Amino acid sequence: MKVEAFYIAIVIALAQLTTSIGQWQMKSFAGGGVSSSNGINPLLASLNGTYNIWYNDYLDSLILPEPTGHIIRYINGTGIYPLAGTGVVGYAGDGGPATSARFSSPRGVCGTTSGAVYVVDTGHHCIRRVDIVTGIVSLLAGNCGTSGDSIAGSVPAAFAFNSPVACAVDSAGSIYVADSSNCKVNSISSSLTSVSLAAGDGNCNAPNVAGRVGSPTGLAVDTTGVLYIATSTLLKQLSTQGTLSTLAGSAAVGNSDGVISSATFRGVRAVFADSSGAL
Q1: d(Cα 227, Cα 22) in Å, to the nearest integer?
Q2: Which end of the chain has a smaller Cβ tally under 10 Å, C or N?
Q3: Which residues are within 8 A (CB) of 259 and not within 5 positions of it... i.e. 6 or more apart?
């Protein structure tokens, strides 16, 4: 029997939507409780502002950044546990255990199948790396604690972001970052040696205009290498040839269904591409 599932983040809780032989069922998966203890049933846990979640194949776990809790946790078959952060806001811990480090409003996670988890440390305007094998956290890109907008080609550790909120990794290992307040999507090379502009012109207004991504809120890469960029009301796509186009939505706010060219959205925070190419 084939069972498929996806997860819906609802700020303080997670819902699981599953299908078996075409029958969809929704049930509570995590959150709604009052406990922050480790290893407990996820339904008893208290979640803090989760919406950009990611499934990590290496850990066989769901990774949850919690912006208002200043912590990143994961859920596996036995319970919910801390991956990085202490729950206390601050910047500390690079070079040491991730569970002893401090973050500020982490809003996004992504990573590789070989054990690297990248954390978007939104409040500190930087990207940090957690090595699942060693448990060590380190700075990947950005000048933590200082916002800015660096030129293309910058060394990652010297690059400046402004309130990044999401990330995604393609099959080659390049890391895309939704640089929200700079109204761009930047790309960190697979060698982790440079940062360049992937999409956007720095103008946050009228995201439906060609070449713009507005203030991006979510990213996903499909199996063919196409990058999908979510804004509040639009979903754009960046082809492997570098062509940016609108896939769905418009500048208008709404909730209309139908053909994707006329559908409207309101407050989109994340996007996910499955193995079949569905979003």
Answers
A1: 28
A2: N
A3: none
